[in-house]
Amino acid sequence: MNLWSQRMLLGVLCSLQTALVIGQAATHSAVTPVPREGSWMERHRSFNERVQANQDQIDLVFIGDSITEGWERRGRLVWESYYAHRKALNLGIGGDRTQHVLWRLDHGNLEGIHPKVAVIMIGTNNSKDDRNTATEMVDGVRAVVAKLRSSIPKTKLLLLAIFPRGMEFNPQRGKILQVNQAISRLHDGKSVFYRDIGASFLGDDGVISPSIMPDSLHLSTAGYGVWANAIESFVSKHLGDAPIEIEPAAVAGDWTFEIEGPNGMSEARMNLRTDRAMLDGWIKMGPDRELAFESGGRFKDHLHFQIVRDRPQGGYMTYDFTGTVKAGRIRGEVTAKVDGEATTIAWEARRR
Description:
By secondary structure, the chain is of the alpha+beta class. The chain contains eight helices and 14 strands.
């Protein structure tokens, strides 16, 4: 038997082991481990390389899809505050479903490591359209948990409910809710700990604000701050370190807004209002021109918001603001977008 045949046989045996652990044959896609191609495989291999290079240096892993992978993008500032010093590893790949995670777990993503905590949030991509039924999704999540329990038996598994998606109530949210109700039964208080933090992303009316999920699925920086804060007590307890407490910078109130234009710096008045991780307000330029914020959020000393305005010649112009708060000032950049073109300039604000 050649090396390739041996590897194929090993993959079949691992898949069979997963099916036996959950007490059923792998009869549908959500529980049948399969790889993906292209950049997916490159990222998978990079995980294996990091795992092999840090065998005794991984205490915390995050396992999931693009929402988990996003810790490296919009969630980067939050990751640096909460996890960069905690021997943490991000094992998220965009587009993954339960079957892809199962394949990765069978092919090296956890080989030789023994993390103290694993955070799992997977399944939203199985819920789309008719990819899998709710029952099949439950099977898939159960299979992932079973595989983790057999691969890293001493690790505390924090199984998160699949996050809500879609700005307002919709059938897909209902499907996800049914799945969450079922997988909550996996909680045993010893090895598997189930947490539903989905309500943390919703407003009082059940709407998901773009400040938390800009596309009603993937998190903003502020959204990752909500996630990290919601699980911090569990993570710190089982890592055996002190809980991290982060207070967002106090920005509510009136500011003098300054922006650099073609004729130098111009001033306006800015008002900021805050509600948990969310931020809103307005910029008043002159006596009769007030531009309201949309999709505003904050984490620590970082804030972002957006302004969309009509153009006299038709269409819209969008301004994306980011800023950092320090010593009573906010400094950042604004990117103006119109007709597919973008221009970025500096802006600043100071307390009035």
